[in-house]
Amino acid sequence: MQKKSLMHSAINSVKGNLIIVGIVILIIVTSIIEPKFLTLGNFENIIRQFGVLIFVALGMTFVIMGGFIDLSVSGIISLVVVVMVSLVDPIGQVNAIIVGILIGLACGLLNSFLIISCGALTQAEALFLTYGMGLVYAALALMYTEGMTIFLSYAETPITIFNAIGTGSLGSIPIAFIIFFVCLVILFIIQRWTYIGRSIVLIGENIVASRLSGIPITKSVVFIYAVSGVMTAIGAVNLISRVMLASPVIGGAIGGGYETQAILAVVVGGTAMSGGRGSVLWTVIGALVLTLMNNSLNLMGVSSYIQMMLRGAILILAILLDRQKQISEGK
Amino acid sequence: MEKNNADVILQIRNVSKAFPGVQALDKVSLNVFSGTIHGIVGENGAGKSTLMKILSGVYKKDSGEIIFDGKKLENVTPIQSMNMGLSIIYQELNLINQLSVGENIYLGRFGIMGGRKGVHSNARILLDKMGCKIDTYKLVSELSVSEKQMVEIAKAMSYDSKLIIMDEPSSSLSVDELRQLKKIIFDLKANGISIIYISHKLDEIFDICDVVTVMRDGHVIDTRDVSDISRSEMISMMVGRTIENEFPPRPNCAGETILEVKNINTNKLKNAQLTLKKGEILGIVGLVGSGRTETVRAIFGADKVKEKKIRLQGEEIEIVSPRNAIDQGIAMVPEDRKVQGLLMRFSVERNISLARLASLVSFGFIRENEEKQMGVRQIESLDIRTPSPKTKIQSLSGGNQQKAILGRWLELKPRILILDEPTKGIDVGAKYEIYLIMKKIVEDGGSIILISSELPEVLNMSNRVITISDGEITGEFDPVQSSPDEIMEKAL
Amino acid sequence: MPTIIKKIGKRIRSLPNAFLAILAIFIVMLFSDTQFYSSYNLLDILNSNSIYLILAMGQTIVLVSGGVDLAIGGTMTVAGIITILLINSGVPIPLAIAVALVFGAFVGAINGYISVYQKTEPFIVTLGMGVILTGVAQQLTDARPISCSNPLFLRLANYRLFGQIPAMIIVMVVVVIAMHWILTSTSFGRNCYAIGGDYEVAQYSGIPVRRLKALTYVISGVTAALGGVMLSSWVNTGNSIFGSITALYVVSALVVGGTSTAGGVGSAIKSVLGILLLGLLSNAFNMLNIDSFIPYLQQALQGLIIVGILWLDSYSRKRKRENV
């Protein structure tokens, strides 16, 4: 009986997600035009491209499920990257990474503290507060290195961990993927089965009713921003491992880079911007869709500019489809 | 009273309307005569608001005929029906808070009225005609509920309305404001304007209306002169059966004092205080805005206060958040279930488990089996009608939603249960079920604080009644001994 | 005596935060030994912010009616590029500009159609559109800045009326006055407030809500295109880097100034205050020559000011809610 309903819901979600169907078609078309697509090498390629973005997107999922948003991630990336790389020589790579993650955590905590202290309980308020803080973190990164880029490859102490994450594999599975997978499992467990995970979606659905029923608001808000900060920092580690340098503007300008892409992955994946409904799994699918699209279009020689246009178009398509789904559900 | 067809301003003939799964209106027919105040009563789900929405153009009827002022009403938009002279004033007040009084009265007609100057000068004339002194430049957000109603009436007047429908106009008014409204309604009548007056407050129907139509389950049961019908007849027509008692016998289990609350001071409350005995139902009587909800919210920790003192079973305790209150065994069913209680897209099960969720946690994880049992338990015990515990709560009826919320709090087996308007928007049948539940709670040793705008409800269910007015507790009564008038007087 | 102070205090507190912040900047700069108060500098501030101000005016009516337009950066960029490309291939300048404006209107119409008529979240729709346009911009220029071959075009933005008043400021003033007039004295503008205040109520009063709301996006698109044309004339490049950065900057400036993203609240003046505040801040920091960290500290302080003002806004709303 249970097996049947699992199949049922799988079919339903595929039916409901025309984008997946579209991507499957794209995969088929691409493999015909460019047989390189279906090789193991390409698969590894795809997994690696998955890279930084997925970590940020996973963190962003939690924030959006809770009915909030985090636009400071680009700034956090820049800040974590420069501080981490600058500390590799003085305190060793392991400690540097730990410090980097702590910085991500600290930024997240700071974000949540600001939001809670002024009683900003709407997504719009959180949007601009985190936007402003993002500017601050990005600026701190610039101030820290006085605008200069630090090269990890010039480090005098071992950078084996970064190398491993960047290019290493365990068997045929990239280490980066393993890290991602572990994070995914942990986050999914939290989201699905824990009290704090449930609290997050409850607050995203109706924060007033949740508060009046004793759900811990402050703890949940702190948690989602902490997760976002930590996941972003992990993404930063991933980033450094691949490009081997720390530029203070590597996160991109606030509003231009990672947060947009992360939101893209979250929305395309199906998590509602309004909160209360969503899953990290869906975000993985969304990120996968976008990455696959990138990869197959690259292989077919489509210009990166057109790819950008398609990304924007997919975002719009995704919410239009989601709207259709909502209408058919009778909302 | 002489009636001839020439005097009929509104004819509704065999109007039907169905929604998926329910026949909201079934061949409804009634006539409204010019210059009369026509009451409409019926339980929730009787079809009153569906009918009104068809009249005002929000819904489309499936079949039947409506003739207003000699003209057929067919597929009109809200603005068209307003232009024909049919206005409706909803309970939720259709005003734009961010705009001024004048602009609201002439909403959508800014240009036609000659811009800012024209809008405000004409609005001033209208308001003066009504004897209303509100400044037309004031923002609607700064007005009181009764002032907002005046603005709505002025808006209806600005369309030269011949028929004004008022949907539950008095639910948020003080006695003085209700008196003012009455005067305006009678003035309108004197000017030949007809009023349809929808209300749950049967006293007002008898007081204000000339004629009353009783609806039930999408049908018109009867239309009679108000002088020709008694309250119990009206109720039995509304309910379809004779209810000897609207209420169960009053429970009588009061024991020792369990709760003492003193010195609640906020911007609104002045030294509010109360005591509650174990097994007692304490009713709080007061007008909307008198501070009833503020008082219980202060006790529950939902609002910040300047000071307050709470003693639970002799011990002084601190409550700064709902979580604190819950931990102390205090529960509160909030006033507005849609905004403050329901998690619409979540299942009935998850709505029920909400307040006790923390107790279902081991090592951070939720014990979902126990959660399921919790849901089933409350669904059975309260007879909540739902296809399954996993159904999204938004598909349940109002009464069942309220029961689910009640179930959420009953799971806590609270020592003290605060009920703020527990039967609002619920039909008489379901209300009775809730009264029985209340009775059982106190018989099992719990205590209840009851707030309700329906005086009969408070007076019949409570063991003791306190009155509150303007943030101060003004009196304490035994509802058995004292008369409703005595009590109401202290509430003013 | 105390009551008068109370009254003055109340008056001060009711002034928009942005205005007070601007005042604070002016006061602080009084004590500085810089060229801040020179007419050259003040004029320059207005001039360099005129493009943002024009964008802000379009955004204001969008926000007031309850929407948001994050595509303005992309629209601006592509419009500028289109203008330059057309002029470079011989199209007369007025025609090229007209095409760019029509393009802006077209983008706005699409944004309006999708978010209003298809009832989807404008935040996402316009964000996506901005990404699409950024891609378009890069495609058109191969991600390299392009310049205009017609010197006449470049003179446009730098033209000074009577030798004194920069053309850009004149255009900006016209646009600001126009939007102010629309928002306060036309039924279109007042209806937009109604739509932003309560969509359904506005609808029931016969206001053509969808048409008007979609129209606000068209206006926003046109102002963005106008800004793009002016920008490319001013700096002689069509550059593809702006994207959603601009949009967020403008929207936050407006929110800081007091125009709310919730709709129904705001005005042309408040939006001007918001943009000017951020612009004056930038200028003041430049003047004060904040060490060798100028650009970086400035950005940090800019972020802090945005956070600060918005934090205070939210905090005062919280106090009002608590009513203690």
Describe the fold and architecture.
Chain A is mainly α. Chain A contains 14 helices and four strands. Chain A has one domain. Chain A is 76% helix and 2% strand. In chain A, the strands form two sheets. A two-stranded antiparallel sheet of chain A has the order 1-4. The two termini of chain A are 29 Å apart. In chain A, 55% of the residues are buried. The two termini of chain B are 37 Å apart. Chain B is built from 17 helices and 22 strands. In chain B, helix 13 (368-382) packs across helix 14. Chain B has three domains: 5-239, P-loop containing nucleotide triphosphate hydrolases (Rossmann fold); 245-329 and 414-492, P-loop containing nucleotide triphosphate hydrolases (Rossmann fold), CATH 3.40.50.300; 341-413, no CATH class. The mean pLDDT of chain B is 86. Helix content of chain C is 77%, strand content 1%. Chain C contains 14 helices and two strands; from the N terminus they run αααααααββααααααα. A two-stranded antiparallel sheet of chain C has the order 1-2. In chain C, helix 5 runs antiparallel to helix 11 (209-235). The longest helix of chain C is centred in the last third of the chain and has 29 residues, at 294-322. The chains are: A mainly alpha (331), B alpha/beta (492), C mainly alpha (324). The interface between A and C is large, with 49 and 54 residues.
Q: Would you kindly provide a brief summary of this structure?
A:
The complex is a heterotrimer of chains A (331), B (492) and C (324). Chain A has 331 residues and is mostly helical.
Strand element count of chain C: 2
**Biggest beta sheet attributes of chain A:** 2 strands, antiparallel
Distance N to C terminus of chain A: 29 Å
Strand content of chain A: under 5%
Question: What is the mean pLDDT of chain C?
Answer: 86
Query: Secondary-structure element sequence of chain C?
Result: HHHHHHHEEHHHHHHH
What is the count of β-strands of chain A? 4
Unreliable residue runs of chain C = none
The main sheet of chain A orders its strands as 1-4
The helicity of chain C comes to over 70%
Write the layout of secondary structure elements.
The complex is a heterotrimer of chains A (331), B (492) and C (324).
Chain A: H1 2-16, H2 18-33, H3 40-65, H4 73-91, H5 93-117, H6 123-145, E1 150-151, H7 160-167, E2 169-170, E3 173-174, H8 175-193, H9 195-205, H10 207-212, H11 217-243, E4 245-246, H12 258-269, H13 280-299, H14 304-328
Antiparallel strand pairs in A: 1-4, 2-3
Helix pairs in contact in A: 2-13, 3-8, 3-9, 3-11, 3-12, 3-13, 4-5, 4-6, 4-11, 5-6, 5-11, 7-11, 8-9, 9-11, 12-13, 12-14
Chain B: E1 8-19, E2 22-33, E3 37-41, H1 48-56, E4 63-68, E5 71-72, H2 78-84, E6 86-89, H3 101-105, H4 115-129, H5 145-158, E7 163-167, H6 175-190, E8 194-198, H7 202-208, E9 211-216, E10 219-225, H8 231-239, E11 257-265, E12 272-277, E13 281-285, H9 292-300, E14 307-312, E15 315-317, H10 322-327, E16 330-333, H11 337-341, H12 348-352, E17 361-362, E18 365-366, H13 368-382, H14 398-410, E19 416-420, H15 428-443, E20 447-451, H16 455-461, E21 464-469, E22 472-477, H17 484-490
Parallel strand pairs in B: 3-8, 3-9, 6-7, 7-8, 13-20, 13-21, 16-19, 19-20
Antiparallel strand pairs in B: 1-2, 1-4, 4-5, 9-10, 11-12, 11-14, 14-15, 17-18, 21-22
Helix pairs in contact in B: 13-14
Chain C: H1 2-14, H2 17-30, H3 39-64, H4 72-88, H5 93-117, H6 122-141, H7 151-158, E1 160-161, E2 165-166, H8 167-185, H9 187-197, H10 199-204, H11 209-235, H12 243-257, H13 268-287, H14 294-322
Antiparallel strand pairs in C: 1-2
Helix pairs in contact in C: 2-13, 3-8, 3-9, 3-11, 3-12, 3-13, 4-5, 4-6, 4-11, 4-12, 5-6, 5-11, 7-11, 8-9, 12-13, 13-14
